Amino acid sequence: MPKRLGRHPEKALTAVTVKTRKPGRHADGNGLYLDVDESGARRWLLRITIHGRRRDIGLGSASLVTLAEARDAALEMRRVARAGGDPLAERKAARRVVPSFAEAARTCHEERKDGWKNGKHADQWLNTLETYAFPQLGTLTVDRIGTPEVRDVLLPIWLEKPETARRLRQRIGIVLDWAAAKGFRDGENPVRGVTKGLPKQKEAGGHFAALPYDDVPSFLTKLRGSNKAGPVVALAMEFLILTAVRSGEMRGAVWREFDLEGGLWTIPAERMKAGKPHVVPLAPRALQILQEARALARKPDDPEALVFEGAKPGKPMSDMTLTMLLRRMEVEATAHGFRSAFRDWTAETTNTPSDVAEMALAHTIKNKVEAAYRRGDLLEKRRVLMKAWASFCMREAAGAVLAGVREAVAG
């Protein structure tokens, strides 16, 4: 397009000439132009200097924006630019559609999907927000959420469910950080100082209630003779104790994970807390429990079927099932606490090296140097350890059998 020479005319256009100008760029003055295409389409353009840089800003179609409106818009943008502002950025901000907290949370969750260790963790992350945050924050746009709004969400569960509340606080903070990174909100994340307006939580003990390890054999004897739970639940509890695994690892076990001939159980990475596969050597009693569980199974020959199935077909038993069993048996311990009993027994009654015991519990090695040099899984040493633990746990049962034999012989 040929460059026009001479001074820009002052208000050179009229309402009539806007409609009759031929293709080209026609100046109205003060940086405002009418662009006419060969097709006859007409649009407004403002040429302006912003922070030392020349910028061209479209002001809309001439069929929708009148000459007077275009001049007013151009004047306002020039005023902003002269005051040191950025009219283009302000217009983009005005047009920006700020998402609601619920929309932001779901988008943030989707963008992070490749970082989850497994689907269960991903679901829990969003479910916590849906349950506790969405009722109050869900419809609010993220730029309207401040410390008072976050506090009101956390307060009802801050003392009643402290761990859930802390996780909720963290997840709200992640969503609002995401919103800030996307340009949907400014200022400090309101989660940062919200605890100043909340009551002080009691310090957590940090440990799960556990039986002393000397009481584990008598507990198992009581468990085998108890009618407080169905046979599958009782087998699941005993298997959990003998293998020293986490409850979720036991409850999610399927038959394809087991090598019964080799006496090994390989838990896949996606079901492990550390995100790495874990091989558990199985003592003879643990293998016997699997055979008994298979005899009770709905689908004993399906490799994808759960070993310890819950009441609903195809669904694992809940962690609460084990908790309720312990309550009915009036045992002041948690299912997870039996791992502590195993660790105490290992430390106090055996000469097992600490790294063998820690690997049996699938604990992550915190020392990075040691972790880098650790290559093996100490399987054979752990096999000896787990067999010894099972023998210890079975000692009362063995004693009862021996007593019965002696009584029969004496009779």
UniProtKB/TrEMBL annotation:
<dbReference type="InterPro" id="IPR002104">
    <property type="entry name" value="Integrase_catalytic"/>
</dbReference>
<comment type="similarity">
    <text>Belongs to the 'phage' integrase family.</text>
</comment>
<dbReference type="InterPro" id="IPR050808">
    <property type="entry name" value="Phage_Integrase"/>
</dbReference>
<dbReference type="InterPro" id="IPR010998">
    <property type="entry name" value="Integrase_recombinase_N"/>
</dbReference>
<keyword id="KW-0238">DNA-binding</keyword>
<protein>
    <submittedName>
        <fullName>Phage integrase</fullName>
    </submittedName>
</protein>
<dbReference type="InterPro" id="IPR013762">
    <property type="entry name" value="Integrase-like_cat_sf"/>
</dbReference>
<keyword id="KW-0229">DNA integration</keyword>
<dbReference type="InterPro" id="IPR011010">
    <property type="entry name" value="DNA_brk_join_enz"/>
</dbReference>
<dbReference type="InterPro" id="IPR053876">
    <property type="entry name" value="Phage_int_M"/>
</dbReference>
<dbReference type="InterPro" id="IPR025166">
    <property type="entry name" value="Integrase_DNA_bind_dom"/>
</dbReference>
<dbReference type="Pfam" id="PF00589">
    <property type="entry name" value="Phage_integrase"/>
</dbReference>
<dbReference type="GO" id="GO:0006310">
    <property type="term" value="P:DNA recombination"/>
</dbReference>
<dbReference type="Pfam" id="PF13356">
    <property type="entry name" value="Arm-DNA-bind_3"/>
</dbReference>
<keyword id="KW-0614">Plasmid</keyword>
<keyword id="KW-0233">DNA recombination</keyword>
<dbReference type="InterPro" id="IPR038488">
    <property type="entry name" value="Integrase_DNA-bd_sf"/>
</dbReference>
<feature type="domain" description="Tyr recombinase">
    <location>
        <begin position="206"/>
        <end position="386"/>
    </location>
</feature>
<dbReference type="GO" id="GO:0015074">
    <property type="term" value="P:DNA integration"/>
</dbReference>
<dbReference type="Pfam" id="PF22022">
    <property type="entry name" value="Phage_int_M"/>
</dbReference>
<dbReference type="GO" id="GO:0003677">
    <property type="term" value="F:DNA binding"/>
</dbReference>
